[in-house]
Amino acid sequence: MTNNPEKALSRKAQGEETRAVLIDVGARLFAQNGFHGVSMRTLAAEAGVNLATVGYHFGGKQGLYEAIMDAIIEVRDDFFPTAEQVRERFADLKTPEEKGEGVSWYVDALTRGILGMKKHIWPSFLLSRELAQPTQSYPKLEKEFFDPSFESLMALVKSVLPEDTDEEEYVITAHTIIGTLTKFLEGHDIICKRMEWESYEGHGLEKIITVVCKRIRGSLGLPMENA
């Protein structure tokens, strides 16, 4: 029997597609129900695969959960500008107006990463759940996602707040910024209802970015409007 490279490649592509579907479906189910609230049978049914497929690709539910965490870590920089990028951006910004525009750049990127990309919605919820109800995957998440993200936020606040600001205020301010956007994520349905929006897409997202940028600039003691 001769090997068929095209057939082997097709099987590989199908396997990768199945893995991607399981990761997407798993992120949604784990975000909605928590790790212990999701069964292998439900995972398989929602993904449209047989029960053995989850075990074949991931070794079981824990393996799938860890693969989802790895996938989230891989796209961390889609959510947060890196601390290095922040420091480079603010290095030559001197006036309050210039720093205000730098803050708007950061908040715009962060808001679009968390609220503006559909593929990030369930991973964002899952991150919030990990903070509230840590699983055995939390230490890795803390080291490879939360800590670098916090470093990014700290680079921002230390670039704009007075140098004599104490460390506790820096930390609280950094958490205030991310906490604001997390609440928009968690409150999507009721906020859209009150605003009479169907979703955050389009006008809703742009309005949120405009207002949140303005208010965060003001909370940091910077001009709320661009010059």
Structure description:
The chain is mostly helical and 227 residues long. Helices cover 77% and strands 0% of the residues. Helix 6 packs parallel to helix 9. 28% of the residues are buried. The model has no long low-confidence stretch (mean pLDDT 91).
The CATH fourth-level homologous superfamily of the largest domain: Tetracycline Repressor, domain 2
* Number of domain modules: 2
Count of helix runs: 12
> What's the CATH topology name of the largest domain?
Tetracycline Repressor, domain 2
The strand count comes to: 0
Order of helices and strands: HHHHHHHHHHHH
**Low-pLDDT ranges:** none
CATH architecture of the largest domain: Orthogonal Bundle
What percentage of residues falls in helices of 4 or more residues? over 70%
Tell me about the biggest sheet?
none
What class do helices, strands and sheet pairing give?
Answer: mainly alpha
What's the pLDDT, averaged over the residues? Answer: 91
The gross shape turns out to be elongated
Strand content: under 5%
CATH level-1 class of the largest domain: Mainly Alpha
Radius of gyration: 21 Å
Distance between the termini: 73 Å
